[in-house]
Amino acid sequence: MKKVVVAMSGGVDSSVAALLLKERGHEVVGVTMCLGVVPAEGGRAKCCGPREIEDARRVCRTLVIRHYVMDFSADLEENVIRPFVEEYCRGRTPNPCVACNRSIKFGSFLEKALAWGFDGIATGHYAGIELENGAYRLKRPKDRRKDQTYFLHAIPKEALAKVLFPLAEYTKEEVRGFAKRAGLPVFDKPESQDICFIPAEGHGAFLRSRGAGIEPGEIADREGRVLGRHRGIACYTIGQRGGLGISSPTPLYVLKIDAARNRLVVGEKRELRSESLVADQVNWLVDALPEEAWAKIRYAHRAARCRISQNGDRLAVRFAEPQEAVSPGQSVVFYDGATVLGGGVIQEDCGGTR
Amino acid sequence: MNQIYMDYAATTPTDHRVVEAMLPCFGEVYGNPSSLHAFGQEAHGAMEEARAKIAAFLGAKPAEIVFTSGGTESDNLAVKGVVYANRKKGDHIITSAIEHHAVRETCRFLEAEGFKVTYVPVDGDGLVDPASVAEAITDKTILISIMHANNEIGTIQPIAEIGRLARERGVCFHTDAVQTFGQLPFTVDELNVDLMSASAHKLYGPKGVGLLYIRKGTRIMPFMHGGEQENGRRASTQNIPGIVGFGKAVELAKASLSEEAARLAAMRDRFIRGVFERLDGIRLNGHPTRRLPNNINLSVESVEGEGMILSLDMLGIACSTGSACSSSSLEPSHVLLAIGLPHEFSHGSLRFSLGRYTRESDIDAVLETLPQVVGRLRALSPVHAEKK
Question: Angle, to 10 degrees, between the axis of helix B305-314 and the axis of helix B360-378?
């Protein structure tokens, strides 16, 4: 892969990705995606705001590579933000970074890069790609604490041949060290962890600004006894403890978000556990599945042993041990050792004690 | 890779003869033109020689030329200087909807200061109707500022006619001639202007120097305060190398003005014809005939301008696009919006601007490359695929 476009957010990771590729002899161009994310008055956009674009430009000047700004705001709106709002309205907890990687970064951005005349793209994700028996495989990176493969499981399999992840072999500390040594002005920039288009005021304010009906409603237990009131179901996630405003002798957790009745169902911690789940929107990055795999049901989850059976577009996943807080809308991602097998979007949990 | 520069409207390379004329002004003729000694007198002489050359080119008197740091400063001095000097007479400014930011943002600033601004619309070709300017004049109007030719779409305005109307009504008239100065033949009397802005780096002179023509008798308030340079209208030690270079650039432009304009216009027209022969879904922005001899502004249906710029740049062709990333997204320019560009064209505009070093072979190369680039990018576009 000779000519590579690096998607540059103005942060340290994508800046070092560009640095490493340049050192390895690639012909590198930086592109910042203008996503239409407006920073709060006087505030700083988490990414892709005018200041982030300027940071990316400064880094490219330092690296002596060209830099361009491309508008992806309509794309983000249609393929990420609108589905995000709709999912919340349906009482689910969507993962917009998964959608963005699938349809924008490794979708339309990659397609455009090829049309612009490049051989492929690179990003500053902590993930790896390896060629195994003639096929490209998505791999977990050296820095397991920063592993971002969870967000990458839904990218098209064919994209793997056109993508480079230069940070695969490095830790965050090493990456900052590279940036500092190369004199990149962003070497000590703080991490951005949050969703780029959500302003500082949080999900609720954002969803309300997007016209999502966020109505207060009832909080009930599994028997239907009303225990209190909630501020709007979009403000809660499954497994959430506290913030419910209910006094109870045992701690209560959100078990279920019932969008049809605008109701939260709460119960005890043990009731959060599920032995299995069903997922759809399945994407496989390998050709055949192993007997057993390890599944992550959210980014910060410790992978759990499971068996997968596929029935058409739907997957049934049965865990060896029940898992807590299976949340519809989040992704379930499967691993076999360091290899990412693929994943899907959780539709429902299937019981166990719940 | 052979590099083809087609962004002369943004800036031009400094002509080597201009550079040679400037060189003595760094180590030899380095005096301060305000100093009384021989060094100062020598620098002053060089500056006044340039001023006289430029004034003669414009049909103006040397004392009517104020050197500035560039077109933006000239526009600021003209607009702010005139309205502040005349604020007892009125508070109304007339300008067009497609002015350069240097005039547009200055007007916005003055609006916030309490002045009233009328932005007269343009037609689909980007032309201002002199009648609509005349209609907008009130007894409170103290300045009309309409650009000579638009920097994006190249449309040349009927400045002489607007100037005549302004004069009849006793209103001060400014034109931003940054795109036409040294490119079209004109004098300030032919244009009926009271003030005119120009910049050296658009005509193969150095960056950092411009001028404002101020007709004798025009009331203007300076906003650079300090010494008595430029007849008290612009304090600050003059940029002697820049001014001398500006003078040389004007001399060179004058020597070949009409032949060069004809050469560029012929290449421009061949470029436009060639693109229309090779591509469908193309629109020429700006007036078909009343346009700058070096300007080609095209909108390409269902393709993004930035993608074309990047692809062309990778292939060694430099041009520009009509949008800029604002805080929210890449917005189509106010000029393209003002001419009512249809939505499907609004994001895919490209400006090619030709110049002194453009050759016929460059036009051939772009005519060969552009359709390939557009074809590749259109293959991605769902909008275009549906139409086929």
Answer: 130
Class of CATH domain A3-181: alpha beta
- Please give the Cα distance from B190 to B160 (Å, whole number): 6
Are residue B214 and residue B318 in the same domain, yes or no?
A: no
CATH T-level fold of A215-267: SH3 type barrels. (2.30.30)
Which distant-in-sequence residues (6+ apart) come within 8 Å of A186 by Cβ? A10, A11, A12, A15, A55, A58, A59, A179
- Indicate the residue of B311, B325, B379 with minimum beta-carbon distance to A53: B325
Cβ of B311 within 8 Å of Cβ of A70? The answer is no
Q: Is the predicted pLDDT of residue B152 greater than 50, yes or no?
A: yes
Whether B248 and B275 map to the same domain: the answer is no
Q: What is the pLDDT of residues A203-234, one digit of tens each?
A: 778 888 887 778 899 999 989 899 999 988 88
Query: What is the Cα–Cα distance from B206 to B13, expressed in whole angstroms?
Result: 8
Distances (CA, A) of B203 to B50, B115, B182: 15, 34, 6
Chain A residue with minimal CA distance to B308?
Answer: A116
| Same domain as B274, residue B212 | no
Distance CA B321, CA B331 (A): 11
Dig out the tokens for A25 from the structure.
Answer: 């002899």
Catalytic site residues of B? 325
Distance in angstroms (rounded) separating the CA atoms of residues A340 and A289: 11
pLDDT-wise least confident of B52-56, B307-311, B325-329: B325-329
3-state secondary structure of B217: coil
Residue B321 belongs to a domain with what CATH number? 3.90.1150.10
Residue B11 lies in a domain: no
For residue A66, list chain B residues with Cβ-Cβ distance below 8 A.
313
Residue A49 is nearest to which of B327, B347, B377, comparing CB atoms? B327
B63 lies in the same domain as B212: yes
SS3 A126: coil
**Residue numbers of the domain that contains B327:** 256-387
Q: Are B216 and B267 part of one and the same domain?
A: no
**Are B311 and A115 an interchain contact pair (Cβ–Cβ within 8 Å)?**
yes
ipTM score for this prediction: 0.81
Q: Give B331→chain A minimum CA distance, Å.
A: 9
Condensed to tens digits (0 to 9), the pLDDT of residues B270-302 reads: 999 999 999 999 999 999 999 999 999 999 998
Statement to judge: residues B178 and B159 lie in one domain: yes
* Whole-model pTM over 0.90: no
For testing contact with chain A, the best of B1, B303, B306 (most A CBs within 10 A):
B306
Q: Which of B308, B312, B321, B330 to mutate to probe the A interface, most A CBs <10 Å?
A: B330
Task: Indicate the SS3 state at residue A348.
Answer: strand
B250 plus B324 within the same structural domain: no
B240 and B308 part of one domain: no
* Beta pairing partners, B349: B299
Asked whether B47 and B234 are in contact (CB, 8 A), the reply is no
Would you tell me which CATH number, out of the four given (2.40.30.10, 3.40.50.2300, 2.60.40.1470, 3.40.50.970), belongs to the domain A273-349? 2.40.30.10
CB-CB neighbors (< 8 A) of B307 in chain A:
70, 112, 115-116
